[in-house]
């Protein structure tokens, strides 16, 4: 139960950072839609999507309620949309790296015996901190990787759109709503029938980058 509570806290933090930087980047590029909608905030309640958050708990990847963006407020629609979309995953990767640096700092300065603490069976303050940082690293990487998949409405589709010509771009964006239903269908089928469609794409890089940051932090 302790880990589930901690995991819930980390998930809320990660999706809040992800969505905040979408809105903040759009705002800096000329679109104040997210700000007017009250989404340019670090209040996690404003960013929760029930289904996407549930998937984060179940499979370590998911999404939040999309920050509203009006691409017609940008000077360059395709490029600004791509940059705005990329800001979410990038913020998660940066947060994962910062968490790894903080973990390394705690281990090196305080001389924490990570193995002893994590296998002691006792829930101490050090256990909470170590678990929090480890979950922060893993969930941020998972969230960033999942959202980079080039399937509408995920961020990766908008980043990919930035490299398309205008005609192809608008046809691609028209597919976004249908893509959302397709994505939910894929996730449900994967979960119900235990077919690792998304996880087969996400898990290899997730394990690789998580192990790199954890090895760096604990040495």
Which structural class fits the helix and strand makeup? mainly alpha
How many separate domains?
Answer: 1
Order of helices and strands: HHHHHHHHHH
* Termini separation: 29 Å
What are the low-pLDDT stretches, counting only 5+ consecutive residues below 50?
A: none
Helix content: over 70%
Taken as a percent bin, the fraction of beta residues is under 5%
Mean pLDDT equals 86
Radius of gyration: 18 Å
Largest beta-sheet characterization: none
Number of strands: 0
- What shape does the CA trace take? globular
Summed up, the helix count is 10
Could you name the key traits of this structure?
219 residues; mainly alpha; 10 helices
Task: Explain what this protein looks like in three dimensions.
This protein is mainly α and 219 residues long. The chain has one domain. It contains ten helices and no strands. The longest helix is centred in the middle third of the chain and has 34 residues, at 77-110. It is globular.
Question: Which helices and strands appear, and what pairs or packs with what?
Answer:
Layout: H1 2-28, H2 33-36, H3 50-59, H4 77-110, H5 114-118, H6 125-147, H7 155-161, H8 166-174, H9 176-192, H10 199-218
